[in-house]
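Retry 2 of 3 after timeout on previous attempt. Resubmitting structure tokens to design endpoint.
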């Protein structure tokens, strides 16, 4: 077996199904299945319990033991590669871009897709985490740039004012997201197809794309939902799901969960996205980097952003 197969199998256990793993790891389901079968044949044992497409990923007793060794190998391999980059001085050639773990990052995805099409040899690493952790990594010089979504009751300057060399920070406004969509199972609210008032979802738990934390930005992002719920005559029930997009959508097909997103992400089987007609808030999306960062690929990424903004203005 090779390190790619070990890496993939180590990650599969973090998802609800092989299909979810394939979607999130950017592999086709057939490749995931091929990797698993090849490794199982080489080891002479079954690692996973086979079921139907909707079955949750489950390990055999032997798989539960061997997966721990695979995960250790994967961790050590990644650590070795990171050290090698720094020893060789190639770390400076890697463009490290951060963003928050949230659904529907359409602006970010469009910009990065355009950048990668125009810079096919770019060595780019993406990091997804909370806004607070993004700022910490940027402060430590571990990120070249990041995308950040800021609620209307928060100013971007208030988030970054305490960074070192604050005057050298370059902030680009990308868009204002003024709509809210809720992803729910197609079996719920069958009479509603495309849009509905917030009160229609009073029996749902609302899922947010970040873990429950003390992050002020995350907390403020929930305030408009609480205010609208109170105005609509019900108490807001919340759920949190971190960065594994497809896992919460899979869960939403089985339970009364409304997955919040400012844009409609890629279609997911069994889920419909409904626009909230009485939504009263908005979020602003920014791109942040240092004016003194002279990496060529960062310059090229900023060109892609400028082209996106020019096109957006032409289409408005």
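Retry 2 succeeded. Sequence:
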């Amino acid at each position: 077996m090779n390190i790619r197969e070990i890496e993939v199998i180590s990650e599969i256990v973090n998802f609800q199904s092989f299909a979810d793993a394939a979607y999130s790891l950017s592999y086709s389901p057939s490749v995931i299945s091929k990797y698993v079968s090849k490794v199982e044949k080489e080891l002479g044992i079954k690692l996973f319990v086979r079921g139907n497409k909707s079955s949750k990923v489950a390990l055999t007793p032997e798989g539960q033991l061997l997966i721990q060794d695979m995960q250790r190998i994967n961790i050590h391999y990644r650590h070795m590669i990171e050290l090698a980059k720094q020893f060789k001085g190639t770390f400076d050639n890697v463009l490290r871009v951060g963003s928050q773990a949230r659904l529907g990052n359409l602006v970010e995805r469009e910009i990065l897709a355009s950048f990668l099409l125009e810079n096919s040899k770019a060595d780019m690493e993406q990091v997804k985490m909370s806004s607070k952790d993004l700022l910490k990594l940027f402060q430590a010089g571990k990120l070249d740039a990041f995308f950040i979504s800021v609620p209307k009751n928060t100013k971007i300057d208030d988030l970054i004012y305490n960074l070192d060399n604050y005057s050298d920070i370059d902030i680009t406004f990308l868009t204002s997201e003024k709509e809210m969509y809720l992803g729910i199972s197609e079996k719920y609210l069958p009479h509603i197809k495309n849009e509905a008032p917030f009160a229609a979802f009073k029996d749902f738990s609302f899922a947010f794309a970040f873990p429950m934390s003390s992050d002020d930005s995350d907390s403020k992002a929930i305030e408009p939902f609480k205010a609208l719920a109170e105005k609509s005559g019900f108490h807001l029930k919340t759920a949190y799901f971190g960065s594994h997009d497809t896992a919460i959508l899979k869960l939403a097909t089985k339970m009364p969960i409304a997955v919040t997103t400012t844009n409609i992400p890629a279609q997911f089987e069994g889920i419909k996205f409904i626009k909230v007609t009485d939504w009263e808030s908005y979020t602003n999306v920014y791109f942040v980097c240092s004016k003194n960062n002279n990496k060529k690929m960062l310059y090229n990424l900023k060109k892609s952003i400028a082209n996106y903004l020019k096109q957006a203005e032409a289409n408005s």
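Attempt log closed. The radius of gyration is 21 Å.
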